[in-house]
Amino acid sequence: MNNEIPIGSPIRTQAIINRYFVKAKKNLGQNFLVDLAAIQGIVQAAQIQPGDQVIEIGPGIGSLTEQLLIAGAKVFAYEVDDDLPEILNNELPKQINGVPIKERFELMMKDILQADFKEDLKDFFDLTKPIKVVANLPYYITTPIIFFLNESELNFASLTLMMQKEVADRLGAQPGSKAYGPLSIAVQIEMNVTEALTVKSTSFIPRPKVDSSVVVLTPLTQKPDVGDAKHFNWVVKMCFAQRRKTLNNNLKNLIPDAAERAQLIASLGVDARIRPEQLSIAQFAQIAAAIK
Questions:
Q1: Structure pTM?
Q2: Which domains, from first to last, does the chain contain?
């Protein structure tokens, strides 16, 4: 197969699958994106410029990686599938625009949720400069990855993430929506949420049951005052512990005293029968401040 054909094209992807006997592993949530327009759309949504430092999560066979490198990025990728380093080494171009790929691409075999960014990246990136994250996330682990990235102390310029559309809808959901919950709130106290494009299920091999969305998260210039973010997010999760129950019921484990609970709920200016998805971030911040 002519390596001038992009990896993300259906014909090249199928050739790689055949050559290496690749099978998408369900336990790793693997689906190979074979829509070159969508791949290039992800790169454009991330506004990749020459010299950008990019963390990629799960490079797979290199479809997105190749386009990031062509756009001029320096890419550090995390992967857990031991079958893929050989493919990436053989199929990615040896040089791009006259620059050897080894100077702009590094692969680390590690679960992203075990990453120590400052240690992992110190010899490859300039950690005084912002870093972008670009990834086609496995559906089954999307939410833990977003929480992990959100709570890390790395200097992110943006997160451009492809995920199940249902999860993307949760990120930007507003109070009163069924999609609104701990993930929405944890992201929105830190980031602006922009849905960049929809990717149909037909763009993948094997074909998933649902469509995907590409979401761009950028740091807020002015963040809401929620106190300690980890404490705040924990309180929010506890408030949603039994989503279909009232706020009063969910607060019982945090505030056992009924009179104290009633006083706090009254201070929010809401009915005691309110459900947690109806509260604003500011009201959750008030609850978090009242709980030690």
A1: 0.89
A2: 10-219 (3.40.50.150), 229-290 (1.10.8.100)
